[in-house]
Amino acid sequence: FAVDGSQISPGKDLSIPVALVQVGWFENLHLPSGGYTKDIQLDILTPSDLKVSHDQLVEGVVSAHRFQLETQRLVDYMNEHHNDPNCLVFFDGSLVPSFAEKWDVELSDRYVSSLKKLIATSERTQVPLVAYVDTSHARDLTVMLEQVMNLPEAPSIQDAQLLDPLMKWGDRTLLFQCRRSGILSHFHEQQGDITFTYLKSTREGYPARLEFPRWIIESGRLNQVMDWIRGELIIGNGYPYVIETADQAAVLKAEDRQTFYRILQDWAEEQELKLRFSRKMVSKTRRR
């Protein structure tokens, strides 16, 4: 099971700040008879939801709301499949949201709270969770080697580059506990619950980074989960099929954007609100 999301953020082309967030999910039952579930959820952010001081923060609010919807859908699924021995949940991204350090405390805490809930739910329901990072720029192992072996800093060297020559398809590294500085300290009692490994997912590319809640290795299920992941990679030609399909379900296309603006315009007219589109947007719409 996997979830992904997309969004239409408010911009200078609209006189009324309104955003659209869509999350899509896909469940593959992996049965001889077939069977799958694919669906979406839409949410609107109104001007009252987007009351912030500048445009950059507006984008951050929309992205954080989308993130919360994605993680909540995963939480709901795990709750629905409590103690199911045949479930695996994929999270597209890292369990350590270093990118959120650029936002203010309120926004970054929304990311941290969502991930803490996700990790805790996985352990409580005993549904394995894997956070999949296809192109990782992490340097946890590189920094560890620099410190242990007293090596000079090499910011341009990343873990995946370091490991790639040593691995062939299907290989994984040992499982490590993440002890990264920064936002991980905001996880408090859960900051020791995130582990990671690198998996050679394709013959040509760098290994992918996989992160797990610690309970998975403590329960003895890690090897089973890794085999399930390799199976997803095989049917997805090097990328988890379930994540790829969730992404296809979630994406908002150009025609979706035009439909959203048209519905918004109709609503504004009904409410006798003055909704104005920029000339640039009108010109683009005519050309397309």
Mean pLDDT: 89
Q: Give the distance, in angstroms, between the N- and C-terminal Cα atoms.
A: 36 Å
Which consecutive residue ranges, at least 5 long each, have pLDDT under 50? none
Largest sheet: 8 strands, mixed
Descriptive report:
The protein is an alpha+beta fold and 288 residues long. It has 2 domains: 2-252, no CATH class; 255-288, no CATH class. The chain has helices at residues 55-80, 105-125, 140-148, 159-163, 215-218, 222-235, 241-250, 254-270, 279-287, and strands at residues 2-8, 19-28, 36-45, 89-92, 129-133, 176-177, 194-199, 208-213. An 8-stranded mixed β-sheet has the order 3-2-1-4-5-8-7-6. β2 and β3 (36-45) form a beta hairpin. α1 packs parallel to α2. The two termini are 36 Å apart. The model has no long low-confidence stretch (mean pLDDT 89).
Question: What order do the helices and strands come in, and which of them pair?
Answer:
Layout: E1 2-8, E2 19-28, E3 36-45, H1 55-80, E4 89-92, H2 105-125, E5 129-133, H3 140-148, H4 159-163, E6 176-177, E7 194-199, E8 208-213, H5 215-218, H6 222-235, H7 241-250, H8 254-270, H9 279-287
Helix pairs in contact: 1-2
Structure characteristics:
8 strands, 17% strand, single chain, 2 domains, alpha+beta, 288 residues
Summarize it.
By secondary structure, the chain is of the alpha+beta class.
